[in-house]
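Q: What structure does this chain adopt?
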Amino acid sequence: MKRQIFTAGHEAFRETVRTFLSKEVLPYYEQWEKDGIVSREAWLAAGRQGLLGIAVPEEYGGGGNTDFRYSAVLAEEFTRAGASGLALGLHNDIVGPYLSTLATAEQRQRWLPGFCSGRTVTAIAMTEPGAGSDLQAIRTSADDRGDHWILNGSKTFISNGILADLVVVVARTSPEGGAKGLSLLVVERGTPGFERGRNLDKIGQKSQDTAELFFDGVRVPKENLLGELDGAFIHLMTNLAQERLAIAVAGIAAAEHLLEITTAYVKEREAFGRPLAKLQHIRFEIAEMATECAVTRTFIDRCIVDHTEGALDAVHASMAKWWATELQKRVADRCLQLHGGYGYMSEYPVARAFTDGRIQTIYGGTTEIMKEIIGRSLLA
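A:
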C-alpha cells in the first residue's frame, strides 16, 4: 500500500537524511560502536545539515517547522540505517519541546542556538535507581536557597549522559509526596558537584552513551528553572505523547526493514536443495509478518497525521507505542530465526537489530505502563 501522508517536501528531506547518513554516520559507525560513544563532530555535522532543532523557531537557528512528519522521516531513516547511537530523536523530539515551549525568552537565547548547531548536546534525566516508570518515586531533591537551588541525588540509564552539555533534571522541589512538588531544573556541563558515572555497558545500542549522573550539592541558579515551579508532572505528561509516538515510528520502521532484508535472504538461502522461500512454513512466516506490519503501519501513519494536527491523545500514543514496539520485538526474533546461525552473527544486520531494538518496549514507558494507561481510560 502506498503511503499517503508525505509530500514532495518530506521526500526531499528523506533524501537529505540518507545523504547525511551515508557521509557523516555510516563510515564511522563501527568505530563508534567500539568506542561506546559517537563523535561530537557528528552532532556538529547534523547541525550544519539542518537536522537539529527542526521545530525550533528560525530566530534561534532552527528550522521553524513544527510538522512532525519531518521528525518521522528522520526516525525512519536512522532506524533503517541501524544508526541508533546518534540520538537526534531524543534531542529533537523529547528535549526540544521542553526548551521551545517552557523556556523563558532569556533561556531560549541562552540554550537554543547551541541546541540547533550541535554545540550543545542535550539529555533529560528522569529515571533513578529506585524510580523508573513511577515518577512519583523520584527522590532527587532541590532545596530552595533564595537565589538558587541545591540539587542532590542521582539518575541512571540517561541517554546522551556522557556527551550532554545541558541536562533537564526532574527533581523534587517541594516535600509533598506523589506527583506533586516535582520541577524541571536545567544543569549545565561543568557545574560543580555534577558528575557523570559509568558509560553503561548495554546489550545493544553500543554507540549510544548511556550513563549514571550524580548531583552532590549542585548549585542551580533560579534562572535555570524550566517551566512552572512544582509543575514538572504536568509538563512531562504533556510531552510524553510525542516521545511515545517517536518510539512507535522507529518500531514499525525497524519491523518493516527487518522484513525486507529477511525476505531477500530467504529467496537466496538454500536448504535441502532449494531456496528457503519455496518452503510453505517460510512463506507463512513472511505472510504473517507482512500483514502485521501493513496493519500497524496504517495505524501509526494515522497517529502521525493526528499529532501533526495537534489531535493525538495520550491513549492512542500509548497504543501506538506498545503495539509497534512489541511487533518490532516479535519480528526481530522471527527474522533472526529465519536467518539461522547467520542471524546470530554480529555482522548481520538482523543480529544488531535484535539487540538494539530490545529496549524499545522498555524506555519511554514500558508496555505494561502503556496498557495501564489505556485500560484506565476505558474503565474509569
